[in-house]
Amino acid sequence: MSAVHVRPGDGRHYPMIDGDHVAKAAVQDTAGAFEVFEVIAPAAPPAPPHVSPWSGVLYLIEGRITALVDGTPHDVEPGGIVVIPAGTPATFEVVGGSARFLAITSGDGAGRFFADFADFADSVPADRPATDSMAAILSVTSRHGVALAGG
């Protein structure tokens, strides 16, 4: 593995229904794999709670979010962290204008999911509930082992 340097603003952008996910790094070595994303999220209806096959750590940089993890709300302020174990229902909602956070995910599947999901996300209005686009959401999530909570 060689060193990686990503400048501010650089990285591949994946527009999602809950914000812009910017891929900053994908690391694979003998100890395992993880990916790092910068997420810039506006205040909008939240994505439905969903279960991912990867664990995630959200580190809030700016703004405020309420993270709903396994049915428990967590109010997160800058400098706060939420850990979401793989297989745990979760989503987040921005409180106020916008939020920016780092999302670090285990394995190497989140980036492929974001890329696939972003291909159709441009057609999903950010000011409308995600339930309005449920058929398209389910077609993408099922390909990546992501499931809507309770579904």
> Number of folding domains?
1
Radius of gyration: 15 Å
The low-confidence parts are: none
CATH topology: Jelly Rolls
| Strand and helix order | EEEEEEEEHHE
The proportion of strand residues reads over 45%
CATH superfamily membership:
Jelly Rolls
Roughly how much helix do the residues carry, as a percent range? 10-25%
Number of helices: 2
- Which secondary-structure class do the elements indicate? mainly beta
Number of strands: 9
What is the fold's blueprint, element by element?
Elements lengths: L11 E5 L2 E11 L2 E11 L7 E2 L4 E14 L2 E5 L4 E4 L5 E17 L3 H12 L12 H10 L3 E2 L3
Antiparallel strand pairs: 1-2, 2-3, 3-8, 4-9, 5-6, 5-7, 5-8
Helix pairs in contact: 1-2
Polypeptide structure, described:
The chain has 151 residues and is mainly beta. It has one domain: Sandwich (Jelly Rolls), CATH 2.60.120. It contains two helices and nine strands; from the N terminus they run E-E-E-E-E-E-E-E-H-H-E. The strands form two sheets. Strands 1, 2, 3, 5, 6, 7 and 8 form a seven-stranded antiparallel β-sheet that branches. A two-stranded antiparallel ribbon has the order 4-9. Strand 5 and strand 6 form a beta hairpin. It is globular, with a radius of gyration of 15 Å. The N and C termini lie far apart (39 Å).
